[in-house]
Amino acid sequence: MHTTRTEPLRSADTTGLRRVFAPAVWRDWLSPADWRVLYLYLLTRLAVGMTAYCALWLFPGNPETREPAKFGTAFQRWDWYHFVAIARVGYFPGSSGPWTDKWDNREAFFPGFPLVLRAVHTVVPHWTLSGLLISFVSGGVAVVALARIGRAYRPGTSVDQDAVLFFLLSPCAIFLAVGYSEALFLAFALPAWLAARRHSWALAAILAAFATSVRITGLFLAVAVAVHFVVTVRAHRRWRAVPWLAVPALPVIGYFCYLHAQTGDWMAWKHAQERGWYRTFTVPWDSWATTWESAFGHLQTTGYGIMFQAELVAMVIGLVLLGLLLRRRHWGEAAYVGVSLLALGTSYWYMSIPRATLLWWPLWIGLALWAQGRPRFRTAYLCLAVPLSTVVALTFLTGRWAG
Fold this sequence. Notes:
single chain; mainly alpha; about 70% helix; about 0% strand
């Protein structure tokens, strides 16, 4: 009796495992359209690697050197040092903190990426390789989700591939390939928005919560999900899902409580932003004026000056995008972009707005929609964006400020 009962169970379990790991399952999980955008993604990752390799040989720190620096050093720039320091020793190692001299204001960075980095490092001993691996996998998830959002807008067209192509070749695309938090954020944020469009509110809220643990921008996403819920829920009668809309705020609350316990300051995150990056609240017209003066007033070195010029261009693009979204009554997307612009446009000066364009998925979807039936527009975009993307990549990979 015992043998006859357990043997079929073993057979069924084995069959189930074979089904899970069978190639056909993965082919069904990722459609041919998904594989096409992943092919684009892999090609652009190879292009970034080639650019980094050439940068190390052509632009060494010491012009007289006979050997290039190690490959990983090209990616060890700026914010990376904050992320790896948090992953290694935490936010307040020993007795150090904002009260010590030359503090690096690391509490300005949310814990999501450092936590994942520390977890991956337990398997991959090299810190830089761990960060690159996180961004590589996260970027793959993000482009598949972006493509699926594009197909939801206009099925049966090339909107999905165009959106991914425009996104991956955008001027600041280098930040998707380095040990920064943009790719990981998008790996949660884009599936969250896709879930919201399908009215899977619990899943959208949980994914948005993960996004919020990575960047404060997750709260902007939560606003977009809430707005989309309000404008669509009448047709679906799912008001019982309202409590889920509060879930994305939990990581922020938890992080701020942690900072208060360590520093006694409920606004420790904001004060770190102010000390390290001059992100003090400023009325929008003064922020524009300060950025304009930094861009064209010969107050900064040329490298910083041109980046401030890019900040102004990115702000204009964001405002145009916001206007178009409002005109077309895409209220959720408009809320996301609008809150982002409000946060970025009310600092002492504009900072990292070009990088923020990577997080504006309505921009890439909108450009792809506009490119349908307009091959000249597609060609023009690629001819203009690719050189800019290369310049920004070289700027970052050689240790210069790239936004």
